[in-house]
Amino acid sequence: MPQTTHNDIKIAALFPGQGSHAVGMGVDLAAEFPHAEEVYAAKERTLPGLRQLVEVGPFDELTLTANQQPALVAASVAAYRAWQAHTGLTPMVAAGHSLGEYSALVAAGVLQLEDALRLTRKRGELMQQAVPEGVGAMSAVMGDPAVVAEVCAGSRGVVQPANFNAPTQTVISGEKAAVDAASTELKARGLKVIPLKVSAPFHCALMEPAAAGLAPDLQAAAYGPYAFPVIANVTAELNDDPKHTADLLGRQITGSVRWVETVQTLAELGVDVFIEFGPGTVLSGLVKRIL
Fold first, then answer.
1. Which among 34, 119, 172, 268 would be 20 to 30 A from 197, CA to CA?
2. What is the mean predicted confidence (pLDDT) over 123-138?
């Protein structure tokens, strides 16, 4: 059963994914809190040069998927460890949006920070390499997610729901031609569609080469016991069994991020407080829209 904190506040720790990055993220925490500084020092030992890129940029280079992913993990874990050292509190449960699942697993003690940094660096490289530039696309769709799923299922080519972010916000991903065709049909049904500026079509079948490439590293990684459960993106269910972790992370690369169901699961568990660890407030905003 999920544990509660020592003062019976039921806390869910949330960890953001790509798009929440910023030059200078976490620098103030590292300067003030030794636990955060330890994370940033470990980041530099593991991936030399990444700390300076985070601290001074340039932003375009930090935005590259292979840099952004481990940088966000470090910033999120630094925030979490500074908070935990300062408050003495422990979450009942954690969840991360896409990439953020790695941060959640580090917070739960399942993955070592250094392993998560190396895995997300390779994950970013493989995801970027999986689809040639211009071949894939992603779009945000405002409207009924059931209609989005129906249109994707009836489309030719690869297009599928990638992120169920909010009750009326779903991101679709796939081949550019298929995404464009689905977007046209969705607009005809009265839904609003916004093309996204992304480097690759994440969380769809086109990411299969990345999933296959990362699988040996995921299987070889060491997974310790869970200090508290983490909700997996692809199932929206609690997991506290290290034996399932590699498989869940592998399936996540091509599977949908079921964030609406994730937040609903947290609410059903009786969570009192949601805390977003990392730069930005994207997940905090989504929680308010979902609940």
1. 119
2. 94
Do 253 and 203 form a contact (C-beta atoms < 8 A)? Answer: yes
Query: Are 277 and 83 in contact, with CB atoms under 8 Å apart?
Result: yes
Three-state DSSP string of 254-266: CCCECHHHHHHHH
Tell me: the pLDDT tens digits for 157-199? 999 999 999 999 999 999 999 999 999 999 999 999 999 988 8
| Dist CA 165 CA 100 (whole Å) | 14
The one catalytic residue in 21, 35, 97, 203 is 203
Dist CA 103 CA 97 (whole Å): 10
What is residue 148's predicted lDDT score, i.e. its pLDDT? Answer: 98
Known active-site residue 103? no
276 beta partners? 14
Confidence of residue 133 (pLDDT cuts 50, 70, 90): confident
Q: How far apart are CA 266 and CA 236, in angstroms?
A: 10
Judge whether 17 and 99 are in contact, CB under 8 Å: yes
Catalytic residue check, 20: no
Would the pTM of this model clear 0.70, i.e. be above it?
yes
- Is the pLDDT assigned to residue 100 strictly greater than 70? yes
Query: Which region, left, alpha or beta, applies to residue 143 given φ > 0 means left and ψ of -120 to 50 means alpha?
Result: left
58 in helix, strand or coil?
Answer: coil
Give the tens place of pLDDT for each residue, 234-280: 999 999 999 999 999 999 999 999 999 999 999 999 999 999 999 99
Residue for token pair 């169901």: 261
**Rounded to an integer, what distance in angstroms lies between the CA atom of residue 93 and that of residue 3?**
8
Please give the torsion angle defined by the CA atoms of residues 26, 229, 257 and 136, in that order, rounded to the nearest 10 degrees.
Answer: 60
Helix or strand run (H / E) with residue 93: strand 93-96
- End-to-end Cα separation, the chain, in angstroms: 23
Selecting among 98, 155, 173, 256, the annotated active-site residue is: 98
